[in-house]
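To the team - iron/sulfur cluster complex, inputs and output below.
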Amino acid sequence: MTAPLVIGSVAYSPNVVPIWEGMRDYFAGTSTPIDFVMYSNYGRQVDALISGSLDLAWNTNLAWVRTVAQTDSACRALASRDTDLIFTTVFVARSGSGFTSLESLRGRRLVLGSRDSAQAAILPVHFLREAGLSEGDVNLTRIDSDVGKHGDTGRSELDALRAVLDDRADAAAIGINTWQAIGRGELLPGAFESFWTSPEYSHCTFTAMPSLEVERADPWVANLLAMDWENPQHRPILEMEGLQAWVPPRLEGYASLVKAVSEQGITARW
Amino acid sequence: MVIPRTPVSPPSAAPSAMGVVLDLIEGIGRVPTGGMATVALDAANRIAALDLVVAWCASSGNEIVSVEGLTVTVRHGRSPDPLAQLDPAQVPGSRVWVYTNFDCNLACDYCCVRSSPKAERRAIGAERLQQIASEAAAAGVGELILTGGEPFLLNDLDALVNSCTDELPTTLLTNGMLFRGARLERLRRMDRSRLTLQVSVDSATPGIHDSHRGTGSWAKAVDGIRIAHDEGFRVKVAATLPADQMHELDPFHSFLDTIGISREDQVIRALAHRGVADSGIELTVDSLIPEVTITADGVYWHPVAADHDAQFVTRDIFPLADAIAEITRRFVAHRRAADSAAEWFPCA
Ligand code: SF4
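Output:
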């Protein structure tokens, strides 16, 4: 029997175990069985990948960018969720607050998620900078409720929204997934509205070191991409993981984060 | 787990109601699919917050399990579809039972609907049975099952049965004791290709059978099976046994083999605690998978409880599809409630 590929994942929610058990069951029926190892944060996971105790790591965009930096671009991205290729950051405020653009945040209070959340902290600062606003131009509050998980739990984003509801901030920058989770402002008209949505960027991706031979990686990717939303056995796993199809990664989608990380002097290690 | 609300002083009701959704997303995120999260509503805007929780659950694919005062319990994800867990033959409406009359030439001590020679006839009637058969066929029902009391007491049974077999495969339950004279002629006019007879025989020898059903009844039933076979009908045997005899079935099966009943037509079930039976397993709406059952009085949950108020579903037999839908809806609701109770009180 082929030795299973060992995949690392961060335990950001209790559903991570059923997701990976489902994935392991699926791959047990393929030519490329897998096993998984859970980490409490992305720093540990990337260390394990680089040191060779993992074949693959299921990384967020920040974990991918940091792995690239630590490996001199030797690592490879193998696959992402369809939803990872079209990720955006949404700036939201209380309905009727009158924000029309990033420029209108000048002098106002913006709340950000955990400092290592790409979608709710690092990229928002980058987008402000691109709009001509430096950190001093906007009154920034950071909510570090889930550092290490790169915004995966979204808890810091929920806390940011609470700050807006409680009038401790005028606006919040959150990931599109959190915006969707609260119903995109349609659930309760009069609570939140979005006033700016970022260009699309890439989010999570399976990351491999060059030591993983192409002969092992390629059939595994082919089996992954073969998971089918219409197949009742595959569907619950895909639903829990938040995708309809696994797809090849879109590397250009990481350019904005690479730039943001370098502008903000974010280190390659944790 | 009750997730505490951060105190807010809302300038308007809408944003503060929104807080409960943030609490809910966080709570749901902390439990795996199938787990429960509980949120507390603000007393000041309970209705608005509850509306919002309902809307959020509908749009996000989660499910409200209970609302008690200011506490709402939500399941992460939806509970599994109870219908999908059933064998296709068990899906409500896959077959329909009809009680044709209720009176009977026997007075068995376990009769689940208290039939006897003294029981008042409550006949479904030719017109209603014809409509049931045609609506059943249109509603996708696969089989009709006719039961008495003893249907062969009816003078128009051949016409009744033919109106059913014209639409669907049909099984006719009988004690098999009346196949003589005009009644035998009626049997002969039925459609052998679409009708199965089901005769009750409770034991391999007369003793046990006769003790419940009356002296001489075993011999007549076995003779009735022979007549039906001679007339070219398929015969099933249904036996009703006390639960403590369910483990001694081999001699019984061997006997049924000798009288020409194929193994797939040997149906042995445990005695139900209904009607005049004074012992038996408890059958309740919660524990019984429904079998749509129609009597002259209306629609019931299951044939073993067709005189039991707790299992009465509706007086309206027609449209039959609506009656089937109502039973299906109640079944799903019972199963969901039972599932959530099971999750709340796990066995250690
Ligand atoms: S069990 Fe059947 S045969 Fe016996 S009394 Fe009831 S209806 Fe008649």
